[in-house]
Amino acid sequence: MIKPAEMLIVEAPEDCGNAPRKRIIRDLIVALYGGEVSKALSYLSENVNWQMIGSWGASDKAEVGHHLSQQSRVVHLRIGTIITHGTDCGIDGEITFEDGRQAAFCHVLIFTGGAKSATIKTVRSYQIARAN
């Protein structure tokens, strides 16, 4: 059986060596759009607050998991920029769904603290459909 993430084509900047938090964010987004909901959830705090602007909001990990499991399958992910500054981070890019629809995305993430073991406590997400 092929995992959904194995079918996902990912284009991402390679330069994450100097900033471990960039790698965490990249791995979260690949899991998120690759259909690996449990892996994506592993990066989040138990009481995460995630707002998908204009679509849904959730105030704990279980609720987020429910919403993420309802996503349409993504076949191509292109990450544009990953920015980190202390606990505040952001990532943007583009996705293509299995049915050919495309969207641009931006996620603004806030970690629980500066430790390497810190999890993500807040996510504000924006996703805008592209005209095909």
What are its keywords?
alpha/beta, single chain, 7-stranded mixed beta sheet, 44% strand, disordered N terminus, 21% helix, Nuclear Transport Factor 2, Chain: A
Description:
The protein is α/β, with parallel strands linked by helices and 132 residues long. The protein has a single domain (8-130), classed as Nuclear Transport Factor 2, Chain: A. Helices cover 21% and strands 44% of the residues. The chain contains 3 helices and 7 strands. It has a 7-stranded mixed β-sheet, with helices on one face. A hairpin with a 2-residue loop joins strand 4 (74-85) and strand 5 (88-97). It is globular and about 40 Å long. The termini are far apart. The model is unreliable at 1-5 (pLDDT under 50).
Structural class: alpha/beta
User: What is the rounded Rg?
Assistant: 14 Å
Strand content: 35-45%
Q: Could you list the spans in which at least 5 consecutive residues all have pLDDT below 50?
A: 1-5
Tell me the overall shape.
Answer: globular
In DSSP terms (H or I, runs of 4 or more residues), the helix count works out at 3
| Second CATH tier, the architecture | Roll
Succession of helices and strands: EHHEEHEEEE
Mean pLDDT: 91
Which CATH class applies here?
Answer: Alpha Beta
Kindly, what is the distance between the CA atoms of the first and last residues, rounded to a whole number of angstroms?
A: 32 Å
